[in-house]
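Long-time lurker. I teach an intro course on protein structure, and each term I like to show students one example going from raw sequence to a predicted 3D structure in token notation. This year I'd like something fresh instead of my usual example. Would anyone be willing to generate the tokens for the chain below so I can use it in lecture? Attribution to the forum is fine with me.
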Amino acid sequence: MTPPTRTLRAVLTAITALFALLVFSSPASAAIFPANAPSGTHLQTGTIDCTETATGVSCTTYELAGVGNTDASLSVSVTYAATIQCTNKGGKLVESHDDTVTEVTTTELTSSKNGRLTVPALNSTAPTEAEVLEQADCPNPNWTPSVLAGSVQTASWSYTLTFAGFTSPYVSFSG
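-- Reply from a regular --
Happy to contribute to a lecture. Here you go:
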């Protein structure tokens, strides 16, 4: 093989690897901050991951080791958007606007013996239309709000795991 052929092959290999990284990487990858955890903290089993769908977020279970007796707080916040339609007393649609509903789930985690911390799976599903309507309103109190069918969708979300005694999260990611 001649040197130019090796160079071309190396360039093509690098381009292929970059393409695979761009195509197959998850849009929401976890950021791990070792300075925000007890020294020696590491992933023991499972995968730190969340998957977003149009109607929710599903996060996996995993176990951390090396945490000593340090507890942690796990928080998932999901904001859902919906289109609210306002109808007047005559039955005419007079306005549509977007509204949001945010659901926050916080779980306190206790380290077990042997310095391990089990982080449970968390799932958030979109609120029902009735739950959205509990918070929805129209600019005119004489109008009746309704949710446009199929419009409730995931708008944004965040996931954090913060150890007791630390001010910033050890695991943080969002979508």
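Some talking points for your students: Confidence is low (pLDDT under 50) at residues 1-27. The chain has one domain: 28-174.
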